[in-house]
Q: What sequence folds into this?
């Protein structure tokens, strides 16, 4: 049973990688790209260039993808455009029992009260 789980987990890695590439390219395939989602139509060219640099949209697509993938793997989902809070904070507020929020027993092993005796 353990070999089956390991084999299926290893088979899922290429699928998840292809899915992440597809999602990333889908975001960039929007009319106007991701620029139109975040830009104020009243910004001048200098303001747009500053926003592109802030969000890394001035980098080539492969570099943007690798930065995006690295950030997703470490749990850094950026900032919400609506609330200007970290997305991981917003997720933690909406789903307080989510793993990694510290609300589950044993999820914060640095707390000695939660360590088994």
A:
């Amino acid at each position: 049973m353990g070999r089956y789980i390991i084999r299926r987990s290893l088979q899922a890695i290429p699928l998840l990688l292809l899915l992440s590439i597809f999602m990333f390219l889908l975001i960039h395939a929007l009319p106007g790209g991701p620029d139109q989602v975040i830009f104020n139509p009243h910004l001048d060219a200098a303001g747009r260039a500053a926003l592109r640099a802030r969000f890394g949209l001035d980098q080539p697509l492969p570099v943007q993808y690798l930065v995006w993938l690295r950030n997703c793997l470490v749990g850094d989902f950026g900032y919400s455009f609506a609330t200007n809070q970290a997305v991981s904070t917003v997720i933690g507020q909406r789903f307080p029992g989510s793993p990694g929020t510290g609300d589950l027993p044993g999820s914060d092993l640095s707390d000695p009260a939660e360590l088994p005796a």
